[in-house]
Amino acid sequence: MPTHVVVGASRGIGYAFLETLSKDPNNKVIGLVRTVEPTQKKVDADGLKNVTILHADLTKYTSLLEAAKKVSSISESVDFLWNNGAYLSELMVTKFLTDFDLSEHDKMVEDMQHSFTTNVVGVINAINAFLPLVKKSSIKKVITISTGMADNDLVSKYGIWESASYSSSKAALNNIICKYDAKFRPEGVLFLSLSPGMVDTGGKIPEDSELPRKFFAYTPNMVAPITPAQSVNYMLKVVDASTAAQDGGQFYSHLGKHQAWLNTA
């Protein structure tokens, strides 16, 4: 009976993990959220039977340790740790790092710090809290959700300067995942970064944004956006086929190794 822990499970891709994984009655599915009640109500309303919702905050390490302690009372090990929680800045969707004058400089700095605190340090917190339980598993897979916008080649070739705080923090996170792989691959733990593709999570790209044009330049026959459930199903296939020995520390698309970041027709 595999145990899955989904960090950042309240909505979007995280909640889609709960829905998808809970369809298999053999799975134990544990979702970590900052506010338990609304997510628990949704789980109950949707009839997800084998899902447990626990409190945890990526920026508060002690809350993750407490969550790990509670998980240990549910399962002896964690087979899959899904790091989905993230901060996506709205401030820099259409503003670049040079667009902040002196009066707004502190806002830019705070946004960068918040991005790295949540998207990098927060994931480190989650991994460190749950790694002892992951090591007890025979499966040992730690999967972190990244973004295609963290691909330097994509950014450079197609001029994607937007969302600098988000994409740069995710690029740093990819390197952190590689570091974990370097340390723990000998113990058989798979550490892998995955881009989920362009997913409809309810957010909107501003009308004056040039991102859609750049994405279509990258993938002229793009099919976008996909649903959270579609993204999760794609990623599950990639993870199922991945091993520590062959794929540890890599950064893959939801479509797999060396595949495009976006879906094509």
Characterization of the model:
This protein has helices spanning 12-21, 36-46, 61-74, 105-135, 152-158, 164-184, 211-218, 228-240, 244-247; strands at residues 3-7, 28-33, 51-55, 80-83, 141-145, 190-194, 251-252. The chain is 45% helix and 12% strand. The protein has nine helices and seven strands, in the order βαβαβαβαβααβαααβ. Helix 3 (61-74) runs parallel beside helix 4 and helix 4 packs parallel to helix 6 (164-184). The protein has one domain: Rossmann fold, CATH 3.40.50.720. With 265 residues, the protein is of the alpha/beta class. It has a seven-stranded parallel beta sheet, with helices on both faces. InterPro entries: NAD(P)-bd_dom_sf, SDR_enzymes, SDR_fam. This is NAD(P)-binding protein.
Key terms:
alpha/beta; NAD(P)-binding protein; SDR_enzymes; 265 residues; oxidoreductase activity, acting on the CH-OH group of donors, NAD or NADP as acceptor; NAD(P)-bd_dom_sf; Rossmann fold; SDR_fam; 7-stranded parallel sheet; 45% helix; 12% strand; 9 helices
